[in-house]
Amino acid sequence: MLKGIHNHNARATAAGLLLAFTAGLAFAQPLPALLGNAQSGAQTEATAPLSLQKAIALALEANLDLTVAQREVEAVQGQVLQAQARRNPELAYALEDQRTQTRTQSAQINLPIELGSKRAARIAAAERGRDVAVEELNARRVEIRAAVVAAFFEALAAQDRTALAQDSVDLARKATDAVAKRVTAGKVSPVEETKARVAEAGVRVELAQAQSEQRSARARLASLLGASPPQFTQVSGSVDDLPVVPSLDDIQQRLSASSALRRAQLEVERRRSLADVERSKQTPDVTVSLGVKRPNELARNQLMLGVSVPLPLFDRNQGNLLEALKREDKARDELQALNVRLSTDVLQARERLASVRGEIDVLQREVLPGAKSAYDAATVGFGYGKFNFLEVLDAQRTYFAAQSQYLKALAEAHRAAADMDRVIGASEPTTTPPVNKE
C-alpha cells in the first residue's frame, strides 16, 4: 500500500515538473527575447518591417497637410513679387471742340511717384508673410514627425502585446492538455480541467482584444503615412529604448527656438510691417504729368508739365492705421499667451515622462521579477500538490497583466516624449538601454 502511494506521488510530481518545464520555457526568457520568439513565428510578407526612420520619411513625403502648407508658401511668394512691382504710368488723351479750325488735342503721360517709403514697407510686409508661411510649414513637419513617433511606438507596443497574448494562449493550451491527461489518469478532479478550459478561453479573448488594438494602431500609423489600408504588417524597433527626460535648461533653450514660438514672433513682425504700410499711406503720393498740346488755331505744339498732390484734409488713413496697430498689439499678446501655454504643455509632458519612467523602473525591478517568481513557485507547487490549478492560472494571469502594463507604460513614455517634441521641436533621440529583467 505504501509503495502504491509512493508511485502515485512520483507520477504526480513528474507531471507537475513537466508542466513547470513547459511554462518556464516560455517565461524564463527576458521580455525582449520572448517577444522576438513570438514575432518570428508570425506570417511575413514580401515587404520588410517598417522602421521608425522609414515611417518618418514616408510621412514627410506623402502627408497631405505638408502639401497644403507647401502650397501656401508658393502662394505667398506671389505677394512678395507683387509688392516689388512699381505703379504703372498712365497715358491720357483729350480732344476739345469738334470743329477742325478750333480743335485742340492733347496727349500726356502721368507718372505716379510713391513717397513715404510705401514700396519698401509693402515689400517688408510681404516678406514677413512669406516667413510666417515657411515657419508654418516647419511647424507642420515637427507636428507630423511627433505624431508619427507616437503612433509608431503605439503600434510597436500593440504588436508586442499581441505576441505576449499569443504566447499566453499557447501556454494555456499546453496547460489544458496537461490537466486533461491528469484527469484521464484520475490524478485530479475534472473540475480542474473545466477551470483550465475557461482560463484558456479568457486568454483567447485577451488575444482577440490585443489583435484588434494592433490593427487600430497600424491603421492610425498608416493614415499618417498616407497609406490606407496599411502597406505594412510589422514594425521593427525596440520599445524598451526609453527617451531621456530632458533638463529644464535644455527645455528652455529648445522652447525659445521652437517652430510654434518662432511662427508667433514672425506674425508680430508681419503685423508691425503692415502697420508701417498703413503709416506710409498717410504721406500723399505725387503725380508728375508730361505731355503735348496742339491747338489748331495756333498750328503748333505746346509742351505740358504738371504736378498733382492730393490734399489729406479728411482721409488721412487714420482708421486703417489704428486697426493695424491694434492687430500688432493683439499678435504680441498672442505671442505671450502662446509662450505660457507651450511652457505649461512641455513641462506637463516632461513631468509625465518622468513619472512613467519611475513606473517603468518599478515594473522592471520589482513587479515583473516578483510576478515571474510567484508564477514559477505556483507552477512547481502545483506539481507537488501544494497548490491547485486555479492558483497557477491566477499567477499566470498576474504575470501576463504585469507584462502588458509594462508595455503600455513604455508606449506612454514615448508618447510623452513625442508631445514634448511637438512643442519644442524634434531633437536627436537620446535613449537609455532597457534594464535586463532577469
TrEMBL record:
Residues 1-28 form the signal peptide. GO terms for molecular function: efflux transmembrane transporter activity. Keywords: Coiled coil, Signal. It comes from the Bacteria. Residues 321-366 form a coiled coil. Pfam families: OEP. PANTHER family: BLR4935 PROTEIN (PTHR30203:SF24), OUTER MEMBRANE CATION EFFLUX PROTEIN (PTHR30203). Belongs to the outer membrane factor (OMF) (TC 1.B.17) family. This is Outer membrane protein, cobalt-zinc-cadmium efflux system.
